[in-house]
Design a protein that fits this description.
mainly alpha, about 170 residues, Four Helix Bundle (Hemerythrin (Met), subunit A)
Length: about 170
């Protein structure tokens, strides 16, 4: 039974990468957008700067999507024959997807909160909106990038799969 679990493990990893990072991005975007709509109702000329603060948490969802897509490509899901994988390889792929998912979930939520604080700061100090608001939110991005890089490097270099059509 365990020998047939490779593919479900791998696809669960891909799903977690996409879902966790996507959920974090959605929450972060929602938090920042709520703050921005309040400020924009009074000061619509600040749309450009505020848009950047609102959009920043969306990158984590993109990172998770790229890793999920990479797993499907690695498994040759879009080709004529999928790559046969062992349960251990599937579990390894699942584990490799966790850094981007977990880092994306938490960093996007906190990036949205930081972006919302930057939006509120820009209402009183528009000169500081980019200097502090965007910079602080961008600092959080580093941890999403690190999670993405770990997932990508492990999938690229750490997990070797058979060539489709070859004997396992």
């Amino acid at each position: 039974m365990l020998e047939m679990m490779g593919l479900p493990f791998a696809l669960t990893g891909a799903a977690l990468a996409v879902f966790l990072a996507g959920i974090g991005s959605a929450i972060g975007l929602g938090v920042a957008a709520k703050a921005a709509t309040g400020v924009l109702s009074e000061k619509p000329e600040r749309y450009g700067t505020l848009m950047l603060l609102v959009v920043l948490p969306s990158t984590q969802g993109i990172y998770g999507f790229v890793i999920g897509l990479f797993v499907m490509i690695k498994l040759n899901m879009f080709g004529p024959e999928m790559v046969p994988i062992t349960w251990f390889q599937g579990l390894s792929i699942l584990a490799a997807c966790l850094p981007v998912g977990v880092a994306g979930l938490f960093s996007a939520i906190h990036q949205g909160r930081t972006g919302a604080a930057g939006v509120l700061m820009s209402a009183k100090r528009p000169d500081m909106a980019f200097k502090a608001g965007v910079v602080y939110a961008a600092l959080i991005e580093l941890y999403a990038i690190l999670g993405f890089l770990i997932s990508l490097l492990v999938l690229l270099m750490g997990i070797k799969l058979a060539v489709p059509g070859a004997a396992v």
